[in-house]
Design a protein that fits this description.
Mean pLDDT: 89
Low-confidence stretches: 1-5
Largest sheet: none
Order of helices and strands: HHHHHHHHHHHHHHHHHH
Distance between the termini: 25 Å
CATH superfamily: Amino acid/polyamine transporter I
Number of helices: 18
Oligomer: single chain
Length: 448
C-alpha cells in the first residue's frame, strides 16, 4: 500500500488588499524619474512650459488607458503572472514566453540593477563611499529586498506600503515648500509655448520627451503579476489601477509645477538633477542631501515593488513547463515563490556588479511596449470567449480605450525602429534569443 502524502504542495496566499495594490502601483512607478526627467523634457520641448506639461499629462493619460484596460483583464483572469497570462491566453505560449524571458534576463533584472546602482550613487551624495563599496552597497540593497520578499508577501507588502507613503509624503512636502518659496513663475508667461520652432523639429522633440515621460510612468503593469495573491481581485484590481494611475498623474504634474516655481523655465531646462537644484535654490545647498535621502527611499521602494511582483511571472512560466521547474515551487512556510524571487534577484545582482545592465536595458526597454500592446489586445479575445455573466468592472469606453492604448504603444515601438534602427535590431534580437529556449522547454514539458 502506497503511503499518502498528508502535506499537499503549498500555494500562494491571497493577502493583498486594495490599499496594498494602490501603494504597490505608486511605489513601483515612482523611482528616480520624477527627480531627474523634467529638465530633459523641458529641453526637448524648447523650454515651452505648457507643451512640457501637456506631454506629462498625455503620458499619464496613455498609462491610464492601459491601466483601465488591464483592470478588466485582471478581473477576468486574476492569476499569478498577470500580463504573461493575458498574452498567453490571447496569442499563445510563444510570445508569452518571450515576454517572460525578456522580463527575467533584462527588463526586470536590469531595472532592479539600475535602481541598486542608483541607490549606491545617491548614498554617495550623503556619505563618501569608494567605487568598491558602492558596488557592494548595490548588491546589499538587492539582498535586503530579496530576503524580505522570500520571507512573506504580507511582509514585503507592508514594507512597500510604508516606503511608498514616506516618499509620496516627501514629494508632496517638497512641492509645497517649492511652490511657497519659489519665485520662478515671475515672467514665465513668454515661455508657455514654443516660438520659432519648425514643425518637424518640434515633433521630434515631443517624441523624445514622451519617451522620457513614459519611462517615468513605467511600472504600473507590474501589479498585475500579483493577481494570484489579491483578495477579491475582481473588484480591487480595477479600482487600484484607476486610483493609482490617477494619483501618479497628479503627483507628477504637481512636482513639475513646483520645480518651475523654484527655478523658472530657463534654469529648470538646464539641469539633469532638477529636484536637487530646485531645493538648493530655495533652501540652500545643505537641503540637497534631504533630496538625496528622499530619492534613496524612492529607489528602494521601486526595487522592492519589482521584486515583489516580477517573480510571479517566472513562477507562472515554470508552472506552464516553460521555465526551470524549481521556480514553480511555493515555500511551504512562507507561501512565496521563494526560489523564483532568489533566482531573479541573483541575476540582477550579477548585472549590478558587472555594470552590464545599462547596455541591455537601453536596447530592450522599448520592446516592453510591444508586449504591453499584446496584453491590451487580449481583451478582445477574452470578451469574444466570455460565457459568464457581467463582471463587476468593464473597461469604460470599450473598444476605444484599449485601441488607443494599443495604437500609442505601437507608435512608440515603430518610432524607435524608424529613428534608432540599429538599437531596435539589437533589442529585438535579444528578445528572439529566447526562441531556442522556448522550443527546448516546450519539448521537455511534452515528455513529462
Amino acid at each position: 500500500m502506497e503511503r499518502q502524502d498528508s502535506h499537499p504542495p503549498a500555494t500562494l496566499e491571497r493577502t493583498l488588499g486594495l490599499r496594498d495594490l494602490i501603494l504597490l502601483i505608486i511605489g513601483t512607478v515612482i523611482g528616480s524619474g520624477i527627480f531627474i526627467v523634467p529638465g530633459a523634457v523641458l529641453r526637448q520641448t524648447n523650454g515651452a512650459v505648457a507643451l512640457a506639461m501637456l506631454v506629462w499629462l498625455a503620458g499619464g493619460i496613455l498609462s491610464l488607458l492601459g491601466a483601465l484596460t488591464y483592470g478588466e483583464l485582471s478581473a477576468r483572469n486574476p492569476k499569478a503572472g498577470g500580463l504573461y497570462i493575458f498574452i498567453r491566453d490571447g496569442f499563445g505560449r510563444f510570445p508569452a514566453f518571450l515576454y517572460g524571458w525578456t522580463l527575467f534576463f533584462v527588463i526586470s533584472s536590469g531595472s532592479v540593477a539600475t535602481l541598486a546602482v542608483a541607490f549606491s550613487s545617491y548614498l554617495g551624495q550623503i556619505i563618501p563611499i569608494s567605487p568598491a563599496v558602492a558596488k557592494l552597497t548595490a548588491v546589499a540593497m538587492i539582498a535586503v529586498v530579496t530576503v524580505v520578499n522570500m520571507v512573506g508577501t504580507r511582509e514585503s507588502a507592508n514594507l512597500q506600503n510604508w516606503t511608498t507613503a514616506i516618499k509620496v509624503a516627501a514629494i508632496l512636502l517638497m512641492s509645497a515648500v517649492l511652490l511657497w518659496l519659489g519665485r520662478g513663475f515671475a515672467g514665465a508667461g513668454a515661455s508657455l509655448w514654443p516660438a520659432n520652432a519648425g514643425a518637424a523639429s518640434l515633433a521630434s522633440g515631443i517624441g523624445l520627451a514622451m519617451i522620457g515621460v513614459l519611462w517615468a510612468y513605467e511600472g504600473w503593469q507590474y501589479v498585475t503579476f500579483s493577481a494570484g495573491e489579491t483578495v477579491n481581485a475582481q473588484r480591487n484590481f480595477p479600482r487600484a489601477l484607476l486610483v493609482g494611475s490617477a494619483a501618479l498623474i497628479g503627483i507628477y504634474l504637481l512636482a513639475n509645477l513646483a520645480y518651475l516655481a523654484a527655478l523658472g523655465p530657463v534654469k529648470a531646462a538646464q539641469t539633469d538633477s532638477i529636484a536637487a537644484a530646485a531645493v538648493t535654490a530655495v533652501a540652500g545647498p545643505a537641503a540637497s542631501k534631504l533630496v538625496a535621502l528622499a530619492i534613496l527611499i524612492s529607489i528602494f521602494s521601486a526595487a522592492n515593488g519589482i521584486v515583489l511582483t516580477a517573480p510571479r511571472v517566472y513562477y507562472a512560466m515554470a508552472r506552464d513547463g516553460l521555465f526551470f521547474h524549481r521556480l514553480a515551487e511555493v515555500h511551504p512556510r512562507f507561501r512565496t515563490p521563494a526560489f523564483a524571487v532568489l533566482a531573479g534577484s541573483a541575476w540582477a545582482a550579477v548585472l549590478a556588479a558587472t555594470g552590464t545592465f545599462e547596455q541591455l536595458l537601453t536596447y530592450v526597454v522599448f520592446t516592453g511596449w510591444l508586449f504591453y500592446a499584446l496584453g491590451a489586445a487580449s481583451i478582445f479575445i477574452y470578451r469574444r470567449a466570455a460565457t459568464d455573466g457581467e463582471l463587476p468592472y468593464q473597461v469604460p469606453g470599450y473598444p476605444w480605450t484599449p485601441l488607443l492604448f494599443i495604437a500609442a504603444a505601437g507608435a512608440l515601438v515603430v518610432n524607435t525602429i524608424a529613428t534608432q534602427p540599429s538599437r531596435a535590431a539589437v533589442g529585438l534580437g535579444i528578445v528572439l534569443l529566447g526562441a531556442p529556449a522556448y522550443f527546448i522547454w516546450r519539448g521537455r514539458s511534452k515528455k513529462v
